[in-house]
Task: inverse folding
């Protein structure tokens, strides 16, 4: 431990005025700084797992709280291992045909002494991104999905579905041109993953929610939607704050290098989240007559998802506008999904991550501002080509994730079954699937 | 005037309520209870240790009704709560000596409805 | 995303022994390091929003939990936007008369390419400070204030009240002499904001609590104070730990630069918090016969608030003493406010932030130690002049914030009304103001 | 505050292309970077206090939630002060006989201006480690120990028991050979404290649990173990995520310097935790028929504790294996302790921290991989000598901590008593010890 | 001996308690219930979806009293719980056949007080 | 048929259950209540302010039994719940006019068991 501590003390004492001759050893190299920053950002993103867990626990019923928690835990556990063994190689390994990476499985061939320090740090950062994508799904399929089936979904998403799309958009990040995927070749911009991470997760959740069908009691026989309120709003609120916090690793961390850009990316991220709250709150207030707490919380996430693609490309004012629109969009989308499409998404995963992710990615084509990042959007006189490219990215993300989702959930439904029995659903998944209760001593009004 | 007390499965409360409404019985009070009966409870494990749960979660209904509503009320509950499996519960009917509605100060059968 | 990742890998591989010729590119510049540190500190401070939310939720009743959460969320959302549009310019823009800043509104004129990287990072750090000040208020006015009125308070505080006082004490931080306010001109020391942030928030809460009057049932007709216990002490405890954690961004981050001082500032911060717990616990134990949990939790915050002004100026031993006194003071102040002044402050915001903030600011005049920071306190042979200056700062903070608070809450009271109806209060603000419940399925004993 | 902010702005504006002549001032020195990283890591570790508090609160009953919280708070408060006054000096001061440090009490003699910046930062990092060790105990003695007695235990552990063993294993970290303890002299490897921190805490908890006896109702008269479920699994889950998050300060931070190793240490840490979840979940699933949530949560901690000693020495694949085994071991150990030894450890502190800590320390002797860290384990052709040394460390850790624990708890038992009355235990420690309830308004089924 | 059961508004519990104390009735047991009656419940929205809440939170009092305390007891509850708006609740009086105080083994009217 | 209602100390529920089982009484329903009685409550402080707690946490048992089980039932509860200190609680016995078991549609004394 602390292997060089004594030595540093020595350094501190001696080097009151370091001469240039010392410079090589006594200054922090930029690459070490990048490792430090990328690691810190990854740690922040890792903590988003806690945020997702709390949001999903809070927005669902007490009788399923243990199950939801377990799904989030398992996501991250299997996700880490699978992304190590398989996913990372598919995503960042040597490219074949712009479609798939083919090396670095289990980080094979990485020599720690030369270059490996960076690769391992980069792996960790990518791993927590992958875990984010797969944890989004658990919200959409909450309160009715069989645990073993969920474990398989989680494994397939971390090992295959996420990394493959990731390769198309971000494949070159580690090996440069050698790893480049087809989508980035077109000039697709998704800085921190509105599409790559959030939409992919959201569309998978959509496929799951669709094939599972709504929770018992969610729709009356004549199709009227009924509210099934979450059981613990303070925990959901905590979860949103944790996610907001972790997002400062997600977006600014996606530079994977320390320079001035990390500051304004954080500013953009924060302004969009704030505007998302306001947009969603006002939209809900106007539409339903009250400043709904759960929509306002979702609004923060909607703003954050919306700015994720463009945080490096847009101006602070642009971020406010994107966040505001994402917040409003989220309210509309939740209502549309619930009342028109009659798809039951207990925590709003499809709207927040899928829809706002797509919106945010498209918005880059319009809002990308000169003086920030590399692109110029339509609103600043840029060409429509970027919008088209962004649309191709969004559409291919939808087709890939929703398609894979239908196949995956469909196969599982045919084989082992994906939905718990009605009796189990009414009693709660905690008792039947895990043999426990989340709050064994509190009196819970079990019929609500 | 009678007080009908019923212990039913929590998941059947909605069905019972619908049947009662159909029978034009709208007034009731509902409590959470833990009950043991012929359904012997179950065991689960927590951290590998056996946990006996012999008090199961039930819902308790209290309905004050006038004489002519007693039979419809029993029927409604019985139909709504029935599954045929152990644990469906039981209904007791008690005599109410007096009743008073706080807002209207009505007493006796008047106060029930 | 990861725009330079491939390139860094290359660097890592090539630069086994960087020659001096590479130094310009391959070492981290101090200004980038400062951006990195300031950003990280800001992220930590941002997370304090979650801490405040949990403390306030936990220390109030279940029926108002959603409302409190919402107030905290809205604080940060409106605070961010308003501080961007207005507040930052008033606080750090070109000074007029030592009273008000007049440029940089909406960060206008900031060119990202030259210098803007720093300004945006600095903005974010200041923004989360501003949000802290305004979120303090929600605790003092909890469980009885109308939500729309609160939104307006929150906006005015972030846009005007906080930034103006901030300008007086910290105006020069960005533009140097060009932005300097009158208070810092006197030599007022408030390193991280015992007065600027905490007292301002606390005194505003005092004005609000005063004009709102106590919660129904708080005082019997003969004036005896009755306890209204918070509904979820574990959440409050979590909130305190989160705040303690975030404070390591608040205090050490206020260097906005990376050097050795950040370490001892953290040490001082931690020791004061620890001593605050002990002080408050022992005070409560002696006075009321039991080691009260809620006072001990408040004690940590009291210690933290107390050391905030002087964390850069005092020694570790001084920090322990300041923390201990702040912890004791907090217990005395809570009792005094509650029983003597009969002001109902549900979470102790006035005592913890107002009173201990004032105490901590004054303490700098006595405890500032040679060898730490720049000043010398009375206890180390310094002149009383500093104490006087500190007192001027404390007093002007009180007059400003309490005065503005009285006017603001007073105007709102006259116009739209600030207090919910008695019926609504008894039923809970969640149902009436937001149409929801925080724990819809738990049985809550509604009369407590 | 922000003392150099204006100056930096200036720097940013001027230094578009820093010339070498500027290098001394304009680049971040490695020692400052180390201070920054060590401070950030310490902050993360500090946050583990919140994690422990939530895990322990969640895994015990509602009627003792305030008491548990209070114990965690007090641990950190007294721990910080005592480690400042006494512990740090015993641990890192000038060595006498390889047994005890004898200087630096109250950081006396540390001159902030020369070298003190590092020492203070290092102190903070060590302080939060010390607090971790002592907070582990509260879980094992939960729900039945007198609060005043606990305060004394907490003080003695932070001031004496932990620092002394710490000196033996890590004494040289600050002063080099001058501070060296006997155990590190043998070549004992415990990079971040599987033994020094976790096992020490775990064995102390074992002694406490043994002398206190099981909770009332834990064993039937014929010795059958009965389950006493924790009251709030979502909070426990949150706690585990917080600990996982904080561990990225614990392990990578133990480098106390910024270089490439921090990245792979984080990777190892994460993979072991993930594998721990999987190991524990599968073990519980096979053994008890259900994927138990509480075991899976413990599994994450088991994996983390297991990798702590070797995170710098083993490969990612080795980490997965260590984590997996630790997860399985944790399930076996919990069952063995509970059913065979009939020792009542409410949250599994002994198994997770004591047993998995010992396992992890021994595992270094086998798994230490060439290309990572300094040692070579048996599996890679290393000598058995290292295994023997590791065993000596583990055994001496057990003897020291368990022995001291028996004496300490024994003396307290004889003198002031350590166990609350049966009536108090049944009513809950919150009411009797602290005069409060954690959830005064929720209906809690008090007989469970 | 009579068992008085009253369903009242939660926010009125304190007033009722005071009235009962004034009438020298100190013994009672209180439960949380959800009730439906003439007050038809309300609807709220959660995430834009209508949520019907037709079981409202009420508080249920049970008071075992001797004959001569029945009327004062009813009066006290009626006065304390009255608001005049729908939802004030109702009081039922049931006959107690037998009573036993556990600590003293007193039975009958003795056991009540 | 009688309905036995008992208010006991929460910590005594297990003892009472054991005694009831020994008396071959397995059916019961349990509720959390807050009660006040001869045991006058207690005061505690919260943040230095007095808090009167005069409603104490109790557990309420409801047991429907046939005539010949009434006395054994009372005895079992009395023995299990007894501590001798104030707050042990009280038992009421009410007449059940009618009973119906939902699953079997048994009525009257049959339905009890
Ligand atoms: N004699 C009784 N007294 C009080 N409650 C009873 C009685 N019998 C049944 N119950 C309540 O009804 C619930 C269901 O009873 P149970 O005997 O399991 O149903 P079933 O007769 O359908 O098997 C019990 O859990 C209990 O709450
Ligand atoms: N017949 C009844 N049986 C059981 N509970 C009743 C009955 N009537 C009223 N209640 C209880 O009293 C509460 C108030 O009744 P409600 O009819 O709304 O009052 P009001 O008569 O003042 O309008 C109900 O929510 C329910 O808990
Ligand atoms: N007359 C009564 N009506 C309703 N509940 C009662 C009555 N008397 C006692 N109780 C219940 O029994 C509990 C214990 O009663 P208490 O008078 O304190 O016991 P003891 O007689 O042993 O002192 C009370 O808290 C209350 O819940």
Result:
């Amino acid at each position: 431990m602390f292997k060089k501590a004594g030595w540093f003390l020595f350094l501190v004492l001696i080097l009151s005025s370091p001469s240039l001759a010392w410079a090589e050893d006594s200054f922090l190299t930029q690459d070490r700084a990048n490792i430090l920053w990328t690691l810190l950002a990854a740690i922040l993103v890792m903590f988003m797992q806690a945020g997702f867990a709390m949001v999903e626990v809070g927005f669902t019923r007490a009788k399923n709280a243990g199950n939801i928690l377990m799904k989030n835990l398992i996501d991250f556990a299997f996700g880490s291992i699978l992304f190590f063994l398989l996913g990372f190689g598919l995503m960042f390994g040597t490219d074949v045909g712009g479609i798939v990476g083919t090396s670095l499985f289990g980080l094979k061939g990485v020599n720690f002494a030369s270059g490996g320090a960076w690769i391992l740090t980069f792996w960790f950062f990518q791993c927590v991104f992958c875990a984010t994508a797969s944890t989004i799904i658990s919200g959409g399929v909450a309160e009715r999905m069989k645990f073993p089936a969920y474990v398989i979904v989680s494994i397939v998403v971390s090992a295959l579905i996420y990394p493959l799309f990731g390769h198309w958009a971000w494949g070159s990040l580690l090996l440069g041109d050698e790893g480049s995927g087809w989508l980035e070749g077109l000039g697709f911009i998704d800085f921190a993953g509105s599409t790559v991470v959030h939409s992919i997760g959201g569309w998978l959740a959509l496929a799951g929610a669709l094939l599972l069908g709504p929770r018992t009691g969610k729709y009356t026989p004549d199709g009227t939607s009924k509210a099934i309120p979450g059981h613990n709003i303070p925990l959901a609120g905590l979860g949103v704050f944790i996610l907001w916090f972790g997002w400062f690793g997600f977006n600014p961390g996606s530079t994977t290098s320390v320079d001035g850009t990390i500051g304004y990316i954080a500013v953009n991220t924060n302004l969009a989240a704030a505007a998302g709250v306001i947009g969603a709150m006002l939209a809900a207030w106007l539409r339903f007559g009250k400043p709904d707490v759960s929509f306002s919380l979702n609004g923060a996430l909607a703003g954050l998802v919306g700015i994720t693609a463009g945080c490096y490309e847009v101006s602070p004012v642009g971020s406010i506008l994107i966040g505001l629109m994402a917040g409003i969009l989220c309210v509309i989308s939740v209502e549309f999904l619930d009342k028109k499409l009659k798809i039951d998404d207990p925590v709003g995963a499809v709207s927040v991550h899928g829809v706002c992710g797509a919106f945010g990615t498209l918005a880059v084509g319009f809002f990308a501002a000169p003086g920030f990042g590399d692109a110029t959007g339509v609103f600043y006189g840029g060409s429509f080509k970027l919008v088209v490219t962004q649309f191709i990215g969004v559409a291919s993300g939808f087709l890939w994730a929703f398609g894979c989702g239908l196949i995956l959930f469909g196969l599982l439904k045919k084989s082992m079954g994906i939905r718990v029995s009605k009796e189990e659903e009414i009693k709660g998944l905690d008792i039947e699937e895990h043999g426990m209760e989340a709050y064994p001593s509190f009196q819970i009004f079990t019929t609500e | 005037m009678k007080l009908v007390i019923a212990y039913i499965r929590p998941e059947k409360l909605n069905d019972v309520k619908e049947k009662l409404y159909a029978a034009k019985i709208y007034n009731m009070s509902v409590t959470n209870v833990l009950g043991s009966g012929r359904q012997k409870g179950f065991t689960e494990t927590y951290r590998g240790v056996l946990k006996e749960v012999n008090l199961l979660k039930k819902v308790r209904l209290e309905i004050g009704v006038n004489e002519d509503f007693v039979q419809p009320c029993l029927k409604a509950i019985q139909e709504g709560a029935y599954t045929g499996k152990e644990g469906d519960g039981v209904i007791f009917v008690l005599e109410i000596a007096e009743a008073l509605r706080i807002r209207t100060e009505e007493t006796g059968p008047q106060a029930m409805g």
